[in-house]
Amino acid sequence: MLTAETFHPSALPQADIETWRALCASRPEFANPLMGPDFALAVGAVRPDARVTVWRWPGRTAGFLAYHRRPGSFARPIGAPLSDYHGLVSEQGLDADEALAAAGLSVYRFTGLTDPNRAFSGFVASERESFVIELESTAEAYLEALRAASPKRFKNYRRLDHKLDREVGALAIKGADRDQAAFDTLLRWKREQLARTGAHDFLNPVWTRDLLQALFEHQDGAFQGLMVTLYAGDRLVAGHFGIRQGGVYHPWIASTDPELAAWSPGQVFLGRAIAAMTEMGLTTYDLGPGHEHYKRPYALSIRTIGEGVATAANLGGRAAQMSEQAWSLAGAHGQGAVGKLRRRLDIIASTELSFAGRARGVVQAIGSRTRRASGEMEVA
């Protein structure tokens, strides 16, 4: 018989934490810093609605799911929208609908599902690609494979690298950069970029900023915050910030100096960062989904992640199924206007914890969409 216990991450028994880590280590699909207990513990320190459900079969642990429990027995992935990968870390044989019902949940909305055991089979409405840099031997061998696959593209990147080095300052990558001022600058550049593009500012809520700051300061153990920066002389040019678990790095923040846009500093940075992976102790540089034009040229490995809504066989679950069917019929899982709106609303709902914050986000989303539509009409 399947049973479930639910904890705030801070109350999770140490034995369960160790079992969870062992499950993550047992499959490469789970060996990501976002899928393990350490990320859940970090988010739990800034979010009182964080939860971890532990399912058990007689005599052994079946699996773990970290999430935010929202009103109406609705669950969203832990740390969303920062949780590019999420899902049920489990042994084979655990089904999502049964698991949700045992945990007292009606709905689990996922946007970056990692599900090697197919526990959510039947609930995935659409799939998308995630881009991963994985070193099989040396960083130089990996870069040579990229150059062989796209010689013209990487010849241009090399030209931009030399141009930036010559005209702005000698280029140098700093792995594990601990400079607070540089960290603050990367976040400021990112927020300015979000404002320019009309995207929702996921860095505005206090909890996201507190989480990133705490991770930036965390330097103990295999799970750490990691900032990688590129300087031209003394000038900060670009950088990534995210989390690592051993040799696996997953950046969230990718920022560049907007005054240096003509030199394509993001492309220069990524080439230099790959070259420094071995020195930083990294074997995997997981760029995650989205921004395909920037990430795909560097990623020789592609992973598939799922989007959809898993529901339990109860009243709340059936109501959610009907709502999801309506969204799907309207095109919520495509690349059109409805799909973009749904994803925007997901980010707002995940990030903003107050009604006022959500209302403000929706108003800004409508205004941003109206401005873009007006611009498209003027261009046309």
Could you please describe the fold and organization of this structure?
The chain is α+β, with helices and mostly antiparallel strands. It is 42% helix and 26% strand. It has twelve helices and 13 strands. It has helices at 14-26, 37-44, 96-103, 139-149, 151-167, 180-197, 206-217, 265-275, 292-295, 315-330, 337-351, 355-379, and strands spanning 3-7, 50-57, 60-70, 74-77, 89-90, 107-113, 124-134, 171-174, 223-232, 235-245, 248-256, 284-289, 301-311. Strands 1, 2, 3, 4, 5, 6, 7, 8, 9, 10, 11, 12 and 13 form a 13-stranded mixed β-sheet that branches. α4 (139-149) packs across α5 (151-167) and α5 packs across α8 (265-275). The chain is globular, with a radius of gyration of 21 Å. Mean pLDDT is 92; it is low at 375-380.
Question: What's a quick, concise take on this entry?
Answer:
This protein is α+β, with helices and mostly antiparallel strands and 380 residues long.
Index terms:
single chain, 380 residues, alpha+beta, 13-stranded mixed sheet, 13 strands, 42% helix
